[in-house]
Amino acid sequence: MAFTKADLVDLNVFMAIARNRSFRKSAAELGLTASALSHTMKGLENRLGVRLLNRTSRSVVPTAAGLALFEELDQGFRRIGEALDGLNRFRETPAGRVRLSVPRDAARLLIDPVLPRLLMEFPDLEVEVDVDDRVIDVVASGFDAGIRYGGTVPEEMIAQRLTPDLRWVVVGSPSYLQARGRPEVPEDLMRHSCVCIRLGTGEVYRWEFDRAGDHRAIDVPGTMVANETNVSVEAALAGFGLFYCLEARVADHVAEGRLEIVLPDWCSDGPGFFLYYSGRRQVPTGLRLLADAIRRHWEGQPSNGAGALSHCTRLELS
């Protein structure tokens, strides 16, 4: 069968749809319309004489032939991307596209402070950031890499530390603490109103505390549960209750007196943020530049934990 440039473009469309299982998501990724992708797929299937996708009103799923084609082409498209990225050593400024999956707190603390400056310095780079606290397979979802807390990085991945270990604190507004009093030990939280945390796994988080090796985890009470830090911080600022979060996320509010840290002797240090990616592929230049920019930014921050920045390492996770 003769192979043309148009086939390569259409196969790239097929790969996006097969990976995302969605015309809408693939259209957004490729900068096209869903109807254009549907037309492209019909033309490709007609030329190949094989149905590649099963379409219903609710889903798009590769057929057996489509899945076999996807698996064969996946490595080839990755090698093409790596070859194009390798041209960066011959350019005056790096170029290329990076897709990254990050949780909300990482987007606020790591991406927001550095990405605009990085893209202004290297205007030929493109970075797509997908903000989602859910645990996903970054490889299967077509991302170049992800950012997660160290203890949640899949063990088969290569990981680079981006930040030191991070401190977790309980905060409340002055008005709430004046009305309800201050907890003296973690168990006192059972008599307080708390903003509970829904993790990306769907579980409600047990607040963790440490003091001189004494570790405690508390199922705090609360009529409000949120999976997003901004909403929870706003509730604490409004005097609704106490909230458990990264100290770095509320540092400005604490410095300006809008929130106060309670149980300061019980603050818990947890794993910092790590960049992770598959060891089966070359790291894109844009991803290396972004990781370096994040580390430089955090090296200039006040230390709030025991961890130290290090270079690429494979994590040993339980």
Write the layout of secondary structure elements.
Blueprint: H1 5-20, H2 23-30, H3 34-48, E1 53-55, E2 60-62, H4 64-86, E3 96-102, H5 104-121, E4 125-131, E5 145-149, E6 158-161, E7 166-172, H6 174-180, E8 194-197, E9 207-211, E10 214-218, E11 224-226, H7 229-237, E12 242-246, H8 247-255, E13 260-262, E14 268-270, E15 273-277, H9 285-299
Parallel strand pairs: 3-4, 3-5, 8-11, 8-12
Antiparallel strand pairs: 1-2, 5-15, 6-15, 7-12, 7-13, 7-14, 9-10
Short description:
The chain is an alpha/beta fold and 318 residues long. The protein is built from 9 helices and 15 strands.
Characterise this structure.
There is one protein chain. The protein has helices at 5-20, 23-30, 34-48, 64-86, 104-121, 174-180, 229-237, 247-255, 285-299, and strands at 53-55, 60-62, 96-102, 125-131, 145-149, 158-161, 166-172, 194-197, 207-211, 214-218, 224-226, 242-246, 260-262, 268-270, 273-277. It is of the alpha/beta class. The strands form four sheets. Strands 7, 8, 11, 12, 13 and 14 form a six-stranded mixed beta sheet that branches. Helix 1 (5-20) packs across helix 3 (34-48), helix 2 (23-30) packs across helix 3 (34-48) and helix 5 crosses helix 9. The chain is elongated and about 75 Å long. Mean pLDDT is 86; it is low at 304-318.
